[in-house]
Amino acid sequence: MINNLNQLSEKIYNTDFKSLDNEQIYKVLSELSNQMLLQRKQNSKDKRKLYYLSAEFLIGKLLKNNLENLGIRDEIEKILLENGKTLAQIEAVEPEPSLGNGGLGRLASCFLDSLTSLDLKGDGVGINYHLGLFKQTFKNNSQLEIPNPWLEKSNALIKTDVTNIVKFGDLELKAVMYDLPISGSGQTSNTLHLFDIETADESIVKDGINFDKKDIKKNLTLFLYPDDSDLDGRHLRIYQQYFMVCNAAYLILKELQDNGHSLDELDKYAVVQINDTHPSMIIPELIRQLTQNGIAFERAVEIVTNTCAYTNHTILLEALEKWPYESLKQIVPQLIPIINKLNEIITEKYPENESLHIVRNVPMKFKKVSSINKPYYILKNIKIVHMATMAIHFSKSTNGVAQLHTDILKEDTLKDFYKIYPEKFSNKTNGISFRRFMYYSNRQLSDYITKLIGDGYKKDSNKLKELMKYIDDEKVLNKFAQIKKDAKINLSNYIKETENIYLDDSYIFDVQIKRLHEYKRQQMNALYVIDTYLKIKKGIYPAHPICVIFGAKAAPAYTMAKNIIHLILCLQQLIENDKDVQKHLKVIMVTNYNVDYAEKIIPAADISEQISLASKEASGTGNMKMMLNGAVTIGTMDGANVEIAEYVGKENIYIFGKSAQEVIKLYETNGYKSSEIYENNQAVKDAVDFIISDELNKYADLTKLEALHYDLITKDWFMALLDLQDYIKVKNKLIEKYNDPIAYRKMSLVNIANSGYFSADRTIQDYNNDIWKL
Ligand code: GLC
């Protein structure tokens, strides 16, 4: 091994391995793992191949995972140690690819990992964003966004010689393909293909993350999810989406033909999974390219329908994309005749049922659908194209991502579609990479589990159940407690180093890490903090000291989410300055929460906060990650929490709040009035009013907190006040339980032992058996 490393060092840096600095070592190691992965690659031409199309891939750092998957981590660590280095130091200089946002993008990455581990052929296709989502910083207790230029540093991307011309109505761009080899525990490797343009220009970004949205030649591949609060922003998203799918279609058809198959056999040799609606233009684009190559329109529709499958990740209407017809006509005129014909097919079949049509007029009733409304919803009678509708009609499968979510799709959101295509609908409960989120990032836990039950669980996660035989073994439970404690110390050290905030590892680590959205209800957790604070001031202390840890980015244009971050940061500062309160309660919002941070926080979590308004969180995957690492969940009966509760049993999860059915009813009947709860409950009123108190406003921008306060008592669209009292009650019970260490560790062990179902390996097998058949 050392010979290989020396050779590579000579080649890249003209010197031997031991003379390299950390960044150079990173480059050499990443080069080595890429080389080894590329050698692994096998192309079985006669098997069907999956193309996983996604606007985002939240892949996280790659080096450690690659070394582990290649089976050379220990060897490399030894060599590094001989040179006075640790792998952690090298990892610290590795940039985290900034190609994703939240659960949807992380799911895509877990899927690539599992596909590769199961030796299934499946590549990802996406965009090479230069500046990513954004990097989060805090100033005056508010979120500020700055670019995240991850490509400037050494990274693992490989530039290929594949180029394509992508045509838009008003311009033509040359696309270049970059590859990232993906490792898993299997013997093959898959590839993430990321398309880019050579004319992208980071220097047009000024003043945070602002730039000229019209300058497509320069801005196309700069940001993931650029601000779409105005028409130019929405147009940029259409440019990006078409760019992605046009390149994907070229790639898919080229590989098909290179493997000696005819275009007519597309569905036999390829399957395209459409990850949410962002890549749904792949449908008309594939039809366009097939017909251009001589296939009749009807046949092209049939082939494409048999090739594509669609995953829905949310029932929030704001995420089910609808593009103005006129915008599509301007940006991608080549798709318009196809979209029109697809629409005709549907309107001829279902003339009366307008909700099934692809091209529709915007009805006035969209006005109130969401609290972060987009202006175009309120325009009357403009024609819009419903991307999800197109994806459902012209693909072979539609799936939800947890049982409850799929049920809601069938019975509610998509019920008209379910009526006509019951056979297309199925559930595929999400899963996570156990490798990344425990075996490699919480090695101490994984090694101990191996000592107890052998390492069979790494191939078959259901074997974690065998841990149940230790449920009454105090020695084992104490060891698990010790491992948790060590993880908490690691996290505390890291936070001290990077954020200069001290966390006491004897406190309960209560963790809510996820994007910031009102439906996820970080504001309810903040109200819990306030309630606890007010009680402490009255001499009523929590049963055990608790540290509430948040990690979340808010979309730059989502004012209410940023106001909630502001509230949390103000609370953090208030308590930092109050020695007495700090003995019982701490709050921290970590800066720029990302996958790297997640891998450090998750092993240290005692409590996993999964408190979305029931019916709104399609699945959640952080819930699975923390469960796997022995945290106990407090949550609503929402998303995959429902299935977690089934696996661990009601005694090992803390459930509160109104059910999905009750919530859906409240929306239907307009039956929720937050003001009533506020007026009729003193504790709720006190907590809510504290948001605009003098004490807090010392640290705050009053206008932001006033807006939040006003919203909570007049609207509260995601019903934080509805469940607040129940939440406080149940959370305090859980905290009390923590004082019985054996009982708490038992719950923790039950959670680990029953997490097997939530491995992405299982999810991928489900997709493969029912949809992909690779
Ligand atoms: C979206 C959903 C989340 C789900 C994820 C992956 O981010 O909001 O609930 O877990 O997609 O499906």
From TrEMBL:
InterPro entries, per database record: Glycg_phsphrylas, Glyco_trans_35, Pyridoxal_P_attach_site
GO CC terms, sorted: cytoplasm
Top-level taxon of the source organism: Bacteria
Record key words, sorted: Allosteric enzyme, Carbohydrate metabolism, Glycosyltransferase, Pyridoxal phosphate, Transferase
Substrates-to-products reaction catalysed: [(1->4)-alpha-D-glucosyl](n) + phosphate = [(1->4)-alpha-D-glucosyl](n-1) + alpha-D-glucose 1-phosphate
One Pfam family in the UniProt entry: Phosphorylase
Entry similarity comment: Belongs to the glycogen phosphorylase family.
Name of protein: Alpha-1,4 glucan phosphorylase
Native organism taxonomy: Bacteria, Bacillati, Bacillota, Clostridia, Peptostreptococcales
